[in-house]
Write a structure and sequence with these properties.
The protein is α+β, with helices and mostly antiparallel strands and 155 residues long. The chain has a single domain, classed as Gcn5-related N-acetyltransferase (GNAT) (Aminopeptidase). It contains 4 helices and 5 strands, in the order βααβββαβα. Strands 1-2-3-4-5 form a 5-stranded mixed sheet. The longest helix is centred in the N-terminal third of the chain and has 16 residues.
Length: 155
């Protein structure tokens, strides 16, 4: 017998979601990179996005009115394309909700939103290079690897 997947509702996050978004961000960093993030810094970082929506936004996925996943979108201007790449970041789905279509629902919502935004030219994301389960999911969504690598100089 095939088990029915739960109904998933995706919505734009509000400031009231800050607590769960912080929890998800900290859990994601611990799980994917074995990094413990400073809670005060994460809390301030999450709140800042709500204060400056030109930087991006969060989406929250819910099953039965309980948050079970989220992602963040930030923007990058592309002079080559005269448009904005929407960067998918801080992706997290609670372990008990995985394999139920939560990320698919989040991704499809982002894709639909971007298609309806005349300034959007594409979706991008980066992932921790050894996170093979995430890589498989992203490729199943139709995303492709790029010839680019990310470099950084942290302050």
């Amino acid at each position: 017998m095939v088990e029915k997947k739960p109904d998933i509702f995706v919505r734009r996050a509000t400031l009231e979601d800050s607590g769960i978004l912080c929890q998800f961000n900290m859990a994601m960093a611990e799980e994917t990179e074995a990094r413990s993030l400073d809670q005060a810094t994460v809390t301030a970082g999450v709140a800042q996005l709500f204060l400056d929506s030109q930087q991006g936004f969060y989406l929250v996925a819910e099953i039965g009115n309980a948050a079970c996943g989220s992602l963040m979108i930030t923007y990058e201007w592309s002079d080559w394309r005269n448009g904005l790449f929407w960067w998918i970041q801080s992706v997290y789905v609670e372990p008990t909700a995985r394999r139920n279509g939560v990320f698919t629902a989040l991704y499809q919502t982002v894709k639909q939103m971007a298609h309806h935004d005349d300034t959007a030219c594409g979706l991008r994301l980066y992932m921790e290079q050894d996170n093979m389960p995430a890589r498989a999911v992203y490729m199943a969504m139709g995303m492709e690897t790029t010839p680019y690598q990310v470099f950084e100089d942290l302050f």
